[in-house]
Each structure stands twice: as structure tokens, then as C-alpha cells.
Amino acid sequence: MSARVFLLIGLWTAGAGIAAAQSELKGTTSYSYLGIGFPVDVRSSQASGMGVTGVSLANRFSSSYANPAMYSQAFFTTIGGGVLYRRHGAEDDFGTSTNAQVDFSHFQFVFPVLRERLGASFGVYPVTETSYQMTTRTEILPAFNNSSDTLRYQTALTGRGGLNRMEIGVGYRVNRWLSVGYAPSLVFGTIRNEIDITFENGGYQGENQQNVLTNVGFGNRLGVFATFDKVLDPRDVLAVGATVSMPVRLNTDKSYREVRNFQDPATNVNVRRVFTEELGRGDNELPLEVAAGITYYPNLQWLVSGDVLVQNWRSYANFEGESESYLRNRVKAGLGGQYTAEFRSDGGLFNGAAYRAGLSYDTGHLAMGPGNGTAISTILFTGGIGIPSRVGGSSVDLSFDYGFRGTTSHDLVREQIFAFRVSFNLSELMFLQRKLD
Amino acid sequence: MILVILASQCDNPGSIGRSFGPTDPTFVADTVAIPGLSTRNIPSLTGNLGHVSAGIYNDPLFGRYETEAVIQPTLGARSDSVGPNVKFYLDLRVTGITGDTTAFSRFEVYEITRRWRASTWTMDSTAVVGAQVGTVLHQKGDTIRIDLNPSWTIRYLAALKDTASKRDSIYVASLPGLLIRGVDPNKLLFINTQVSSLTMDNQDSTLAVRRYGLRQFATSIDHTPAAVALPDSLTLVDNLFTSAGLLDLTISSTLLGSRFPNRVDLVLFEDSTFARNTLPPGHVRYRSRQIPVYLLTDTQIRFSIVAEPLLLVNRDPGDGSYRANITLLSRSIIQANRQNGRFYILGDRYNGIISPALYFNERAPARKPKLLVSRFERN
Question: pTM surpassing 0.80?
Fold first, then answer.
């Protein structure tokens, strides 16, 4: 695949991401109504195909947020991004629904300051996501609605937005086997919960109300990454990595917005106005996150990786400073492997491609229902392929997830998840002085 | 940068997750009684309305009305052809009557001899009249043609052919108009002022028939109420502002239970049984079945200011109610925290037709004036 094709895919993907950010989202999971949205795990394009977080999965051709210590491994200047298509089928005891959505997954720019010694990164990626839509059509019989006709109206409850992290990171290789990293970040985002009521009968005024939470805070991530060779075999390599994402105290402004129609008594002209009311400032806290993993490379073709991520959601406090009874600590474990085909000079499109598979189990951060609650867990089966460029270190990675979340017991929701992701990594040797003309 | 619009698709958003998701606001339908319907006499004008009234009628319920229509036709163009056998008629279009539908009624037309102004005409204004210039007998039909006497038409012709530069001013001064007066006390005619005309007919097929509309028009009304005891639950409201209905209603969020109600209907019920039973056989009262709702300030009602109604409300043939949708107005009042004026209603449209009505008031057990409020309650 030529560098030009890679460039076009990259530009298309980046542009698409901006467009998606401007478009209105339809719902992906009704569970995202709770808390400050549903946690989003941004993985490297390689880890995406293996079901792991990727804290121990270093790849010089592929940008990764998973562990800031890996920025020290930067050999190429790399721009990474992706587009994600998701299709959620949901069911509970009352019905089913289907939602599909395409949106931007992340953007990252990684560059070496001192090649494979000191690297830096800048990027934006989502941390939580609120994206739901619940629509109800209601009929009120004449005896209960002040008129001689049946009143019909539709209520759409919609949540949009989420938290994002804009992060600058630095990774430093301390010695041949150990790297450390640090990444301060600005965590920001707006969560908009909206009620929109539309009447089918004439003469009624619908309404649109929005509760808006605008959050901003500063975060810190620390990472460590180590490699050991000749562990079990002269050709093998063992990599371990761990990250700690410190709790983020979010300053939250809450506001209320209404769109209303009026009649000007002086002119009898109908006017439409937006009313905004500031409801004060509070604090949220994005919880501590710890991740650790191990990757084993028995040879150049194969690798197997596993990691665990823990988020301390029990410590979460909402805008009013209250804890939420339905939150629990989240543990996510993933295991996956990769086979990289041999690169041949006369190979076709998939020459040197990496084939990936894995699975993950996520206890979720929610436990709902009677007693201690039923965990809203997620199991995902993952597969993917990485297609390298013939020149430079660029690649396009395709991956998919298929799995299930939740349960229909206790009036809860079970979701069937299908996701397809296209990621790109544009790598280029930059800032190098040519030695030969 | 290449921008590509990405698809967001919602095949079937449904209402999954209601057990833990946000809850729908609850629909609430409230009834708020209006504590009072009284009447006020508000100065009003009876000129330049859509209709003029002529005739006399002793209404057993609403009293005796003696009405005279005063009109002034427009002056035609100097170039209008006039033949030797020209005749002038007053062609009146009758929208409706109140009174005896079977009786013959004589109407007489008099020349007005003093200038008058419709824009300041009130119901007790009177025209100074001279000689009679026409008469007609009416029983049925919605058009009336009155043959005008040459003593008036000759002078109109002279004005028509006047070459003076101020011919229009001379016309207004010399021929101030015509007055139509009923003789028999059995009927009120309501004449549409927009389609009635002075017709010049040359009685010659080669010359065009000319119709001259009305330049100004007004009605003088003498009303003597009837000595009828109304039930406590009924209030007489006319459409001349002499007995305008005043609703004891101040809109507020407290009253309506919401800052932004989704619908507010002002509901009034008109009596039909009691009023109908007072009519002799063969008699009718003209009703348009449409009432205006006003929001008038004290300044407006003090100076005969003719304000446009907020709403014209049609009668529901089912239950005889009038429902005025005042949702947007209510929201405006609540938002401004100020109701600029008081709510008034009339018995019918304020258009020159005389059409009083009986409304059920706050003492009516079931049909009292009220507000029907539809709103949502937050959960």
C-alpha cells in the first residue's frame, strides 16, 4: 500500500472525526445515563485487535495511549487516529432497540526527541461517554387531558457528551530495559441531558429542556515499562508495563437551558427564545485507574499479551457531593495474541500483516438491582488485522469487537455489541539530517 | 482537510433502560376556576366597523334597540359616463337580522345635512338629517335596493361632474351622506359596509353600471334594557362594550402550576336555553358564534381606544363552549411577571352587528368560566 493511500486514509479519518464531533449522537448504551457517563478505554490500534488495554504492548509503528512510558520507544514520528462504527442491539423486559453510530475514536501525535530514548506525545481521546436516547410515545385519553380528543405526544430523553482528555506525555528510557513516563492532561467535557416533548395534537406547545454539566480538571498519569530478553528462550522477550492514572478532581458548572415559544402581547407575534439559568458549581471526581500487563514474545512472529485494569468508582462523588449506590469498582481483564506474517519483497496487500485475536471480560462499574446489585459486565471477543505500509512504518489496522453487556434480569438491559474500527498510523522519519545526497 | 459527514443512525431508539434511566415528566391536566365574571361599560366607537345596523327591535330578553345607519358613498370619477336616464340606487347587502323573520319592515333613507366623522362616532352620536330621499319595504332576502330621490341624485351628479380642483372636499361638505332609519319596531338589519354601494345605472347597455363603495359609515344606537330577571348563574355581555365581560383572572405561575404550561385554554360557556326560550316564534337573534378575547389596560378602556382582540374564539357546537388558547400569552405574562391589562370578552365580534349573549358565571355549578391547564410535572 503506497504512502499516498495511507495519507489519504489518514486525512479522511481525521476529518471524519471532526465531523462526527459536530454531529448529534444517537444512543449507544442506556447505561451511559448513569454517573458521568460510561467509561471508554482507548487502546492502541494493535491492542484493539487483541482485547487488551496494551500497557505492556509496545510498538514503534503504532501510537498508543496505554502507557506513557512507551513514548520513550518512539522511533518514528507517528500520527494516529481512528474511526469507530458501533452497532448496539439492546433488550429489556419491555422491548428491544437498535442503534448505530460512527464517530471519532482518538487522535495522537508521537514524536521522538531522542530516538528510542526520549519521546513525547500529544493527543485527545475520550474518557467517558454519555450517549443514550429513550423515546416514548404517550396517549392520554380525553377524560384525562382536558379535551375531547386523545392527546398524543412523544418524549425523547437524550444524553450526549462525555469527558475527554487532552494530554501531553513524555517517556524516558532509563536504561536498556526500563522506561518511565509521565503525562499531565486537561480533562474536560460537557454532558448534556435533554428532554424534548413534541405534541402531535395542535394547540400544544412542546418543550425542550437541557441540564448541562460542564467539567474541567487536571489529570496525571504515570507509567512504567520494562523488557527482559532471553527469559525462556534465546529469542524471546518479556515485556511488563503498568500505569496509574491519578484521580481527577473536576470542577463542574451546572446549567439549565430551555427553548420556549411565547407571544408578544404588544404585537401578537410568536417569538422563540432560549433561557439559560446557571445552577452553580460543584465537584466531580474521575476515579483512580491502575493498569498492569505482561506481554511475551517467543519469537518475531508471535506474541501473547494479557493485562488487568482497575478503576476505583466507589470513590466517585457526583455534582452534589454524594456517592452513587449503583457504582462499584471496575476490573477489566484481557488476553490476546498476534501472529505477524513474514514480510516478502514480492508479497501482496497483506504482506507482513499482523493477525490478532483476543477476548476481554469487564466487571463494569455498575451494579444494579436488589441486594448488592447485579454487575453490568461486558464480555468482548476481538479480532483484527494490521496492514503495514511497504515504506516507512505506517499501517492501517482493522479490528472488530463482538460481545454482550448486562442482563435482562431485574428490569435491566442486555446489549449486543458489534464494533468495527479503522485506525491509521502515519509514521515518518522526521528531523533527520540526510547523510547521503 | 477533507470533511466527511458521518452517519448516525437510530433504527429503533425505543425506550430501553427505563428502569434506571431518566424518567418521563408526568402529564398533568388541571382545571382552575375563574373566580368572577362581571361587566364593565367601556366607551366605544361605532364608526368604520364591518357592519352598520338599521331598524328597531324590542328584544324580550336584551331590551329595545333603535339603530340608525349613517353612510357616505364615495364620489365617482369625473370621467364616469352619465346617460340621460341615469338612476341611483342604494344597494345594501344584509349579513343577518335580529327580529321577526316574517314581518315587513319599512326603512327610510334621509339626507344628512351636517358633516360628520365616522372615526369619532359613538353609539349615542346623532346625525342631523334633512329630507327623505328613499324608502324600502323589507321582509326577506340579503340584498336591498333603494331607489334614491332625484332631489339628492341630481346634486350627486353635479358633484360627480364638478371640475373644481377641490371637488372631493366640496362633495363631502355639500353631500355629507345618508341615514337609514327603521320605521317598524320588528327588526334590526345588519348591513355589510364592505360590499354595499351606491349604484349608478344609466339604463343603457352601452354605458357601464358604476358601483361606488362607502366612504365612511357608522351606527347610532339607542338601547333600553329589558326588565328581565336573569338567573344568578348568568351574566349578560354585549358586543358594544357597554356591557363588556370582565374576567377576574390574573395569570401567574402559581395559578397555573407551571412557568411554562404546555397549553392553557380559557373556557367560557354560553347559555342557549334561557335565551332561546325568550324568543317569540319566528324571531331570531343573529349570532356569529365567534367571540373576541381582549387584554385591555385601564388606559385603553378610558379613551374609547379600539384595540385588536387577542383572539377570536369559535363556539364548540358540541358543548356550547368557547375555548381560547392563551398558552403563549400566559407564558409571556409569567415570563414578564406582569399582566399588562385585564381580560375582557364580548358577546360576539365587535363588528357593528348587535349581538349580546348570556354567559355562565362563577355561580354556575358546572359551567363556570375556567382555565384548563396542561403541563408536565418533573419527577
Answer: no
